[in-house]
């Protein structure tokens, strides 16, 4: 289990987008702090990515920044919000497997978030509402 601390916090992250970056992406992580409110209690579902992009015509990229710029996306979030892809069965396009009607969580002490899981190199953006932090 890998733990990481990020100096800034956002409830919504786009970690599932890492499938775009590494061939055979089959490793995922979830946010632990602040604790999300899930639509399921099933661990396998919680770790399921928002979408398997490589199965939808998106080739994995070692240099996502160049690809993003070539395809006119301003940020990773812009790609995740506006690209044309289908989400995993049971997922909500905007919230994945977290409850879109869940109670907003406070920013933890020290402005830190914690996540766990098996990760791979790639871009990661953390957003607090409409501000990338």
Automatic annotation (TrEMBL):
Signal recorded as keyword: yes
Signal peptide: 1-27
Keyword list, A-Z: Signal
Superkingdom field: Eukaryota
Protein name: RxLR effector protein
Organism: Phytophthora nicotianae P10297
């Amino acid at each position: 289990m890998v733990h990481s601390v990020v100096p800034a916090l956002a409830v919504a992250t786009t970690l599932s987008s890492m499938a775009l970056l590494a061939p055979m992406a089959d490793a995922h992580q979830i946010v632990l702090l602040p604790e999300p409110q899930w639509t399921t209690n099933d661990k396998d579902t919680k770790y399921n990515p928002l979408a398997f992009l490589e199965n939808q015509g998106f080739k994995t990229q070692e240099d996502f920044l160049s690809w993003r710029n070539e395809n006119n996306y301003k940020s990773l979030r812009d790609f995740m919000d506006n690209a044309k892809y289908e989400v995993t069965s049971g997922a909500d396009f905007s919230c994945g497997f977290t409850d879109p009607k869940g109670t907003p969580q406070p920013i933890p002490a020290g402005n830190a978030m914690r996540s766990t899981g098996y990760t791979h190199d790639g871009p990661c953006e953390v957003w607090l509402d409409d501000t990338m932090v």
